[in-house]
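Reopening this ticket.

The earlier resolution said the output was attached, but the attachment link was broken on my side. Pasting everything inline this time so it's all in one place.
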Amino acid sequence: MTTTSDMDGQEAERAHAENRRLSSPGERFGARLQRQSSAAALQRRLIEQETRNLAEALGRIAADGSVVRSAAAVVAARRRFVTGSGKSFAYASLLATDLSAGLSHVTLVDGAVVRPLDVLSEVSQTDVLIAVSLRRYRRETVVVGRHFAEAGGTVVAITDDADAPLASIAAETIVVPTDSASYADSPTAVAAVVHLLTTLATASSKGARRRLAERDRLSHALGNYLED
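Inline output:
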């Protein structure tokens, strides 16, 4: 006997498979947004999908422990590097910004000020690289991750599929669903997982409280914010 839960699961699997098939924003726009639809109907579909994504992501990481293990690896490292390319660079920047507030030696590999070559030439076994790699999986991120791991460093991957290229390289992989009703893959669960990872790592860092207090003092002294 097929239950409602089974039918919902099968529908979710079909929707996920369709989303993976539409690999580019152009394909997704043609399939989803060219048909006549009111703004209210489109908004409803988007909200429903984002709600499902977030629930799925949080349920998955609560069950598999990937974020807890990744946070432990980040805290244990002597140096922490963060990288991502294309749209994934935005998530990498968010992660590096929040992580550096509570932990020392956090470096965003941006390809300009900090180049992959500079990092890869002196990787040690106490270093960790957090690499954000979402489809359509930029080559440079995967290549940097592979060389970092081969040099003895620990790679933590944040990606959208268990079979993504970076998953086979990483010591820890956090899988985040990005299915969407839009032409763009969903950022909602990715941002939530970045927030969770940085919070867990900061909470476990012995020097985080002192570092955050000192940053507050310096921000006030420098007049960084309007309320100061």
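Reporter confirms the inline version is readable. The mean pLDDT is 89. The longest helix spans residues 39-64.
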